[in-house]
# Entry
Amino acid sequence: MPSNIVIRNLTPETKTGNESPVVATRSDLRGGDRGDGSNEPPPEPTGAPVISAATNNGDGTITLQGSNFGVKNQAAPILWCFGTDRRNNGVPQPAADFTPGSVVSDPTVWNAMHHTVRVSDEVRYPELGVSYWSANGGALGEPLAHQPAGGLPPYSDEIYAAARFKLVNDWHRMKAVSISSISGIFNQGPTRYESGEAVTISNGSNSAFGVLISIQGGIATIITEASSGLLVGATVTGNETGATLFIDEYIAFASGSKYFRMWPGSAAGPYHTISTNRLICAYRNASGETIASPQLPEGGKDSGYGIQNMADGEGWRLAENYISQFGMTLRQYFDIDNQGRRYLETAIPEGEKFEDRAVTLSQVGYDAAGGTLDIDAGFHWGEVYLDNTPKRVVLSDKPTYSEAGQEQELQFLKEWNAGLISFEFRRGGLPDNAPLYAYVFNAEDSCNEQGYLL
# Structure
């Protein structure tokens, strides 16, 4: 099977992809004629999807046959934004300026574009061409494929969104301090976001180690486990250069950032945001007031949960979000590299549910908050996928989904019905000669745990 596939434009020129997406609700996700003359949608199958056959069609697409797939009224995801390949509801978008270092301007894809988001040539695999770069602030949001300018994203019971992130440094251990009495010249990182030399921090009684990131206008950013009590009044010495500086004041710990935020485009309705290292979610009324939050098993508000440290792993991390508002329960998770997935559930108060909206990608990137402007934090990101159902196909070089971690590739869907799925084949960042296994996800966000060998 070839490792690189030429993507063909099979969509009529008259389409822009910014028409309202096919709305997916639990009642119509099952859409399609039963074949018995009834227009009633067939029930969604129970149990994990089963793949029984795979066919390489010879045109860059693969067809899977099997059972328990269910029906997906619009095969293509709402938004497919993978490097220079951007599609709104399956329709390729006009070329944009992707000059590395330039400010992102992609008005047919994003309605909200912060001027600090830049084009980057740092990519996970060469065919992508480009990614995005955000530092201390800078996000894109409100994809036009899902949320027309000035409008609300249409109601759907479920939303699935994913993106890739590559952190330049470990945000969670960064500390900003005001400094004085600099002697000598430290080896700083090649940019204000990258690591410089290792340092020793000592206040005469205790000492700790760290890494200097940058010195900017009397502020130093250091990665260290040292407490604020040890830092204030301490001398920092470069282990390579012997340069020294004195810490006058502790300013901030880590980065109060938001890098994946989802709500309907107004203050009311479901809320889902990732703030530095926590998932925080709730339901809001028409005034934007929180009226319901997840509850702890023993009672009381569950304020969210700590997610895996994005900086702990190497390379491009896979971040996935799932939000369900089926019935009167809001059910959500955020997951990194398919590790330790945990759901938060919120009971929506009677009479308070908004039936005219779903969450969308309000901001993906870096939304500075809570002292972040004092922290030199940045990352590359891209490969944004948004759909109004968790139904999807991924390929991995691992034989079970539990093993897949970040080694999985979302596929662009061409056709989906109860027993047949067709998609454009993408090996992506998976090794060229590795065996590939297919995984199909159903309406319950469950897949065949044992991969189907292609």
